[in-house]
């Protein structure tokens, strides 16, 4: 969640920047979707990932890692052609600052010998297994990215326990690196994210079920990031009340409600004096 005006402006600047790909859900394999939560983009070395340009339907898993090193050291390592490893994101523990290094549609190399690298998004969290106290800022940023990615790529917001399916095409969800199967379908020898990672707290943030992960609250002023339909009820099959343009301001009145793979907010669009439900992904703070 953007916690201050600077974050919001940075977010808008990212959306407006050329060459970072299109904003919003794409049904094709040709466009990179730019995540609204990453604070910067630093490309991993091209020899450390595969340029697969996948469609959303092929991305089934989020894999949670811990760096075993510093934030900047990890970012540097993924830029080093000798490393042969990468993840899509690296997140700093002190403040939740996030670097994206591989497009989500491409395959970062973090998922072991099975097909998990191809069918997943990897997130590195700065720290050491079993030792690090992960900060609220890190959990919140990671949860924002994960929640957004689940909505964007149709990944279930669930955490299967135990070892994950041998074939990554079966099922989907949010798992730790230690749950990724080896070629014999048993556990690998990684232990991250380890005992100090609070899965219950993290999954509450991802799902918003404890309220702490909600992007908006009643009374927040919002504006669309693109021409945005507002509807009589939550759901893309509901009648359109109006199409709101970027710059128009609304006030959050109700929600959120999860329906049809989207999170919906009831908004009073002030200039038009109309009420309707709009999709969270295309709303930012006004
Ligand atoms: Zn790992």
Helix-residue proportion? 10-25%
User: What average pLDDT do the residues reach?
Assistant: 85
Hetero groups in this structure are: zinc ion
Total strands: 15
CATH architecture heading of the largest domain: 3-Layer(aba) Sandwich
Q: Helical region count?
A: 4
InterPro entries: Amidase/PGRP_sf, Amidase_domain, NAMLAA_amidase_2, TAT_signal, TAT_signal_bac_arc
Catalytic activity: Hydrolyzes the link between N-acetylmuramoyl residues and L-amino acid residues in certain cell-wall glycopeptides
Keywords: Cell wall biogenesis/degradation, Hydrolase
Protein name: N-acetylmuramoyl-L-alanine amidase
Q: What secondary-structure arrangement, pairings included, does this model have?
A:
Blueprint: H1 5-16, E1 40-41, E2 49-50, E3 61-66, H2 71-79, E4 89-91, E5 98-100, E6 107-108, E7 120-125, H3 136-153, E8 173-176, H4 199-207, E9 221-224, E10 228-231, E11 240-244, E12 250-259, E13 262-269, E14 274-279, E15 283-285
Helix pairs in contact: 3-4
Zinc ion (ZN) binds at residues 65, 177, 190, 192.
Keywords: Cell wall biogenesis/degradation, Hydrolase
Catalytic activity: Hydrolyzes the link between N-acetylmuramoyl residues and L-amino acid residues in certain cell-wall glycopeptides
Enzyme class: hydrolase
